Task: inverse folding
């Protein structure tokens, strides 16, 4: 689905000021909309789990609000639908969460209630089928994932189906994240405590606090430009965290480190950024450790909200504290299982829970989420076969991952 249908684009004009002549005396009548507003259009684009908005307008003529096009049953404008001249109105707007599995919209008109054909303006609300994390608005929420290797993942959510807490435990790794949202400033704060083993040592990350801002973004696609009303491009520590290295229970060294997770572009001739619909990177760096995920779409689908997209390959580059590097590139094949019918990005379980990135599992960096479940990842050193069984609503019930040596892990999803 593109951002606007042609009929919607034609009707949503910016600050539509209309002058009309009446018999006596000659007067200019004006109706203006200040919110909702996207660019220069009186339009609000919302995700399936966004349920609050506002309407702000001014009219110096008697006015009324009517539904012009679409279904408005999911929209509640909290104010009068008609009024006198010279009124400045500021209303709250509440929306139902979109659990239909399809995008929806409604176009409203504010008209001169005495001469509706002379003075009017339009505004509209459009709600995507997808949530902010890329899952469908009717996807059930995963409470826990149990791995046959003893691994376990638990997630808690708020009323908007956003993650509030995540606990991830593998055989060598443990992550605990707590999320705090500030909707007025469009901010997210993540508090992190992590532990992981590398070779003979155990590393602890404590007191890590990362902050990010959801921004309105315009991206240049292959054939078109697309708009994202709520995009998180990076998370970074507001103050440095503590990283401690233990060996046999004895502290070997400690350091103050920063943690960063962000999108990065590939560049053509080291100058021109490649479109995200072709390729991009996600970097996760904590002190001397970092992992870089190279995502290669090559135009295989569209990153426009609600569209389908799958990468044809993915490169994973890991750098460790002793300057050891591990690099693998996977050629990817996909099943017909929808990765958006489950709220978590199940493809992040491909290399096991110990190598699972919790931020990508929660789909905070949403463009890295493929809309189909991987069936095979064929690399130079490692190859994985994936099988998934689904519930009647399309969500994952069990997922089995088998590596090139025949080792198999089955993940059971609990909702």
Result:
């Amino acid at each position: 689905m593109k951002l606007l249908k042609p009929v919607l684009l034609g009707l949503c004009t910016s600050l539509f000021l209309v002058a009309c002549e009446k018999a006596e005396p000659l007067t200019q009548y004006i109706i203006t909309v200040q919110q909702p507003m996207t660019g220069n259009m009186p339009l609000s684009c919302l995700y399936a789990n966004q349920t609050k908005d506002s309407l702000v307008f001014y009219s110096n003529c008697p006015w009324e609000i009517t539904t012009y096009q679409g279904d408005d049953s999911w929209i509640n404008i909290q104010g009068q639908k008609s009024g006198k001249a010279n009124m400045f109105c500021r209303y709250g707007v509440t929306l139902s969460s979109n659990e239909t599995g399809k995008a929806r919209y409604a176009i409203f008109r504010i008209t001169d209630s005495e001469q509706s054909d002379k003075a009017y303006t339009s505004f509209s609300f459009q709600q995507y089928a997808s949530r902010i994390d890329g899952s469908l608005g009717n996807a059930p929420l995963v409470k826990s994932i149990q791995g046959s290797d003893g691994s376990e993942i638990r997630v808690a959510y708020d009323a908007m189906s956003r993650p509030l807490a995540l606990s991830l435990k593998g055989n060598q790794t443990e992550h605990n994240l707590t999320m705090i949202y500030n909707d007025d400033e469009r901010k997210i704060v993540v508090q992190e405590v992590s532990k992981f083993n590398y070779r003979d040592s155990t590393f602890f990350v404590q007191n890590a606090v990362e902050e990010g801002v959801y921004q309105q973004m315009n991206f240049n696609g292959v054939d078109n430009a697309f708009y994202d009303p709520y995009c998180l491009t990076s998370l970074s520590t507001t103050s440095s965290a503590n990283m401690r290295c233990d060996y046999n229970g004895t502290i070997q060294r400690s350091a103050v480190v920063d943690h960063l997770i962000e999108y990065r572009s590939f560049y053509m001739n080291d100058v021109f950024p490649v479109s995200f619909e072709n390729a991009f990177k996600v970097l996760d760096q904590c002190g001397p450790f970092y992992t870089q995920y190279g995502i290669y779409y090559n135009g295989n689908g569209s990153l426009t909200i609600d569209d389908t997209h799958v990468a044809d390959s993915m490169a994973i580059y890991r750098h460790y504290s002793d300057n050891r590097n591990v690099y693998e590139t996977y050629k990817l094949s996909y099943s017909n299982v929808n990765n958006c019918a489950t709220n978590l990005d199940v493809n992040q379980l491909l290399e096991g829970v110990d190598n699972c990135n919790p931020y990508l599992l929660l789909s905070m960096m949403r463009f890295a989420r493929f809309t189909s479940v991987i069936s095979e990842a064929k690399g130079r050193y490692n190859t994985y076969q994936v099988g998934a069984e689904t519930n009647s609503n399309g969500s994952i019930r069990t997922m089995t991952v088998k590596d090139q040596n025949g080792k198999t892990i089955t993940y059971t999803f609990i909702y």
Summary: The two ends are 29 Å apart (CA to CA).
